[in-house]
Specification:
This protein is 38% helix and 13% strand. It is an alpha/beta fold. It has one domain (15-479): TIM Barrel, CATH 3.20.20.80. Helix 8 (200-224) packs across helix 11 (290-296). The chain is globular and about 65 Å long.
């Protein structure tokens, strides 16, 4: 194994920060005129069935009470030196039912206050318009994104946000992990029909509706907020062949295509040939209007993505066991370790995916989710409660070193926001014990706890990384034998 190349250099103005989502952090699900979202009836995340109404065991109903504690939390982000904070706006806080004629002023005013705090601390907002929280009414009355009418509802919502906040927010993301729709249709697309009862035609038509809505929002932003930068957001998943066989390499190409099509459409404005072949072979005829085709030509300014793990693929059905906790399928890579939740840890995969996306799309890239979910232990050191999370520091350090390598490769990277920069409720399992943050929140899976915030060891570590614009990683990298 060869040492990492030194020095690591991050560009001036690199946007260091963290990321959260409204449904996992805000709480106050029934306050401020907010309507219900699909998350309010998902007490076990994607691992369990939905309920007919919110239930007390759904930790997201209170989450970490950021709705009332946003000023305190943003002050902690500022203490770390955040240059950017990615957060989402809850659609049902602005349009409680999703199809309302007028927005909820109380909801809009809440996000005004959040932006006020960010401006006070000099933190750039990065806003996700729709992050896994379709209004529940749209799911129940329209079957979510299977219905073309959602394009218009989303358009009204996006226009409202651009008109209200367009002069205050430079960076926008249209949908979170838009390529997860086929795998988690209720959470990602508000589709109430059980997944096993959905046809390929319905799923791919819903995918088309979201892509059109995303492109239409991009067009509206350029009209209403011409200084804004609009990005798509995809779940990245580098894929390795399980063996050197050509058949496994072909399986990798097929898996890659299924994931990359979303970015291809967002950056090129048309459906690629390999995707049209998929539709033909599945017997799907998408309902695409001339207006849809025109809308899709409104391509994004940058591509953002989440990165947590890589997968392997094989053509051998006998080796097709899926990785634990991975909603996107794939086969566990026998050469890699895994987290407590079965997500394989692969820092070099981040460099690979950065190079792949840059070579393919030639658009600036933004890493807007990356982090390690782990069970943290609160301890007392020198009279202060903290978490000695050296495992998280090691994970983030190794991944950031690979970001530096990709930048040295010539990849244009705008910034990096760690996922769950403060402990939040997990989307996949709806647990609080799956912690990602630099800040420990005293709340447990049974709902107990004081909600007090405590700085973890990684809090000080990340502050130094930001203060030095990544230079603090150099000594750590030199001391650790990392593969280039």
């Amino acid at each position: 194994m060869s040492n990492v190349s030194l020095p690591l250099t991050f560009p001036d103005g690199f946007l260091w920060g963290g990321a959260t989502a409204a449904n996992q952090i805000e709480g106050a699900y029934d306050q401020g005129g907010k309507g219900l979202s699909v998350q309010d009836v998902m007490p076990m995340g994607i691992v369990g069935p939905r309920t007919e109404a919110p239930t007390p065991d759904n930790l997201k109903l209170v989450a970490i009470d950021h709705y009332h504690r946003y000023a305190e939390d943003i002050a902690l982000f500022a203490e770390m030196g955040f240059k950017v904070y990615r957060f989402s706006i809850a659609w049902s806080r602005v349009f409680p039912n999703g199809d309302d004629a007028e927005p909820n002023e109380e909801g809009l005013a809440f996000y005004d206050r959040v932006l006020d705090e960010l401006e006070k601390h000099g933190i750039e907002p990065l806003v996700t318009i729709s992050h896994y929280e379709t209004p529940l009414h749209l799911a129940e009355a329209y079957d979510g994104w299977t219905d073309r009418r959602l394009i218009g509802f989303y358009e009204r919502y996006a226009r409202t946000l651009f008109e209200r906040y367009g002069s205050r927010v430079r960076y926008w993301l249209t949908f979170n992990e838009i390529n997860s729709l086929l795998h988690a249709p209720f959470m990602s697309g508000g589709i109430a029909t059980p997944k096993e009862d959905l046809s390929d035609q319905q799923l791919y038509q819903a995918m088309h509706h979201e892509l059109v809505a995303s492109a239409r929002a991009t067009r509206i932003a350029r009209e209403v907020a011409p200084g804004a930068q609009i990005g798509c957001m995809v779940l990245s998943m580098p894929v390795y062949p399980l063996s050197p066989s050509p058949e496994d390499a072909l399986a990798v190409m097929t898996a890659d295509h299924a994931n990359l099509v979303y970015g291809d459409v967002h950056t090129r404005g048309v459906y690629p040939g390999y995707f049209l072949r998929t539709l033909r072979e599945k017997g799907i005829e998408l309902q695409i209007t001339d207006e849809d085709r025109d809308d899709l030509t409104n391509i994004v300014d940058f591509v953002s993505f989440s990165y947590y793990m890589s997968i392997a693929e094989t053509a051998d059905p006998a080796k097709k066991a899926a990785g634990e906790g991975n909603i996107m399928g794939g086969v566990p890579n026998p050469t890699l370790p895994a987290s407590e939740w079965g997500w394989q840890i692969d820092p070099i995969g981040l460099r690979l995916v950065l190079n792949q996306f840059w070579d393919r799309w030639q658009k600036p890239l933004f890493i807007v989710e990356n982090g390690l979910g782990a069970k943290d232990q609160l301890v007392e050191v020198d009279g202060r409660k903290t978490v000695i999370d050296d495992y998280r520091i090691a994970y983030l350090r190794d991944h950031l070193v690979q970001v530096g390598e990709a930048i040295a490769d010539g990849v244009e990277v705008l910034g990096y926001t760690t996922w769950g920069c403060i402990d939040i409720v997990s989307a996949s399992t709806a647990q609080l014990s799956k912690r990602y943050g630099f800040i420990y929140v005293d709340r447990n899976d049974d709902g107990s706890g004081t909600l007090e915030r405590h700085r973890k060891k990684s809090f000080d570590w990340y502050r130094e990384v930001i203060r030095t614009n990544g230079a603090a990683l150099v000594d750590e990298a030199a001391a650790k034998d990392l593969t280039r």
